[in-house]
Every structure is written in structure tokens, then in C-alpha cells.
């Protein structure tokens, strides 16, 4: 049930998710319930839909510099995966198919029926490509922003034991208060190291509020633990389901060897390859205009 919505047409929750609450704060924000988990979603702008999905352990606000560049011409959708940002705790560990399906469910919950351009950064590049392969009628284009690349991923053995050990570690460290003490600073350090210049532009209070929680800690550990599993899923999906005939852009940054791998990814997907000059891995912070240009020219 929608409690509040400022301006525009009313949201139309669909079977994929139930809209719970909407408020106005730097763009239209709401919460939708998907598979029993409360998801935080942000909506800005008007026009054809565009979904921005952040990398491993990142949040909606990491796209802040890109949004005003897209909002005049796109309905920009951002959401936090379970456990991250302002979303509720995860009820299951992530899988590639579940993450691709989640993108469609978020769009359903917002009543956005038309094909969407899906933008995935780092790990979320896996999700964006899987979305296009699994739901080709929902995809207008794909933009991979310094996407994760695994050319020949191999399944990891003893997964049940590994998962149990990771959960036990998360519980022990969570009880000890490690997330509250270390996670905000770790987030700052990772962002700083992933840029060519400058630190983390997110407000300190926001970072502390989001990253001091046990649910964020658990979600980051889960995404890290299942990274290889998702890469293996994507490799299998590439063999089983062709990529639809749609525009794909691979926007990359980094050292020559890494750019070679990104160029090979663009060739594999029959896409356009671009380099974000003078940028680190967090391209959306270092070169937001490059990301916006890639989106606007892809769809």
C-alpha cells in the first residue's frame, strides 16, 4: 500500500513486489517488498527507465553524481540489494538468477513496464548481463561500468561447508561489534583506493548509519563468498541463452591489462568498448559524465 507519493502518476505495484512507503528526499524514494524482503528504491527523473546497480557492497548513493545527468531524459531507478543500504536483511544468499530476477521485480513494483536500460557496476555487471539474457523483452540496452570479468570461472568445492563457515564467522564478528567499529572505515578506504583522486564523497553520517549494521556486514560477506558462484552461473548462462539483439556498452578504466580484458568482454557481447580516462574503478564518482553519455547513447 502506498502511503505517500509526491507528484507524477501514482505508482502501480505489480505481482513482482508491493510498494510500501514513498517519501521525497533528493529524488523519489520508496520501499518495496520483494520475496519477503523490504527493498529501498530511489526514483528520479522522467523518460524511458534506466536501472543503476552498484558493485559489491555498495549503495544507492554511489550513483549520486550520475543521476542529475540522466534525470532530464531518463526515469532513473536505483535500489539496494538485501542487507545493503537501507534495504532489509537478506533471507537467502545471492545467486545470479535471483539478482537478475530482482531487477525485473523492482521495475514491476514501480509499474515500469517498458524495456529498461540496465547499468551494472563491477559485480552488478554480472547481474545486468544476466537480466538481458533471462528477460530479453525487458531490456532496452546494457551498460557495463568497469564490470567484473571472469573468463574461465571454476566451481568452488565444498560449498556447504564454506557457506557454513562464512555464516559462523559473520555471526561471531557481528556479536563482537566488528561491523560498527570497522566497516564504515573500510568502506571509506575501499572507495578512496578505487578512485584516481579524492576520497569518499558520501556524507560521514550516512556512511556510518548504513555500514555500521550487522545486516550490511552479512550482505557484504555473502556477496564476496558467492562471487565465484555467480561467475560460474553467468558462464553457464552464456552457453544456454543468447544475448538479445540490443546495444551493449562496456565502459572501463584501469591498467592496460585490465582494459584488454574489458575489450575482450565487449567483443564477446558484440558491444561498444569505451575507456574512461583518468578514472579508477569507481567510474561513477571519477567520471560521471562518461557513464551518463554511455547510457544515453546506448539505448
Features:
alpha/beta; 9-stranded mixed beta sheet; 11 helices; disordered N terminus
Low-confidence stretches: 1-26
Global geometry: globular
Q: In terms of structural class, how would the helical and strand content be classed?
A: alpha/beta
Q: Rg, please? A: 18 Å
- Helical content band: 40-55%
Secondary-structure element sequence?
EEEEHEHEHEHHHHHEHEHH
End-to-end gap: 32 Å
Strand arrangement, major sheet:
1-2-3-5-4-6-7-8-9
Number of helices: 11
The overall strand count is 9
Largest sheet: 9 strands, mixed
| Average predicted confidence as pLDDT | 87
Beta-strand proportion: 15-25%
Brief characterization of the structure:
The chain has helices spanning 67-70, 96-110, 124-134, 159-175, 178-193, 204-211, 214-225, 227-240, 256-268, 283-286, 288-298; strands at residues 18-24, 28-34, 37-45, 49-53, 75-79, 116-121, 139-145, 248-252, 272-275. It has 299 residues and is α/β, with parallel strands linked by helices.
Tell me about this structure:
It is built from eleven helices and nine strands. A nine-stranded mixed sheet has the order 1-2-3-5-4-6-7-8-9, sandwiched between helices. About 40% of the residues lie in helices and about 20% in strands. It has about 300 residues and is an alpha/beta fold.
How are the SSEs placed, and which strands pair?
Elements: E1 18-24, E2 28-34, E3 37-45, E4 49-53, H1 67-70, E5 75-79, H2 96-110, E6 116-121, H3 124-134, E7 139-145, H4 159-175, H5 178-193, H6 204-211, H7 214-225, H8 227-240, E8 248-252, H9 256-268, E9 272-275, H10 283-286, H11 288-298
Parallel strand pairs: 4-5, 4-6, 6-7, 7-8, 8-9
Antiparallel strand pairs: 1-2, 2-3, 3-5
Helix pairs in contact: 2-3, 3-8, 4-7, 5-6
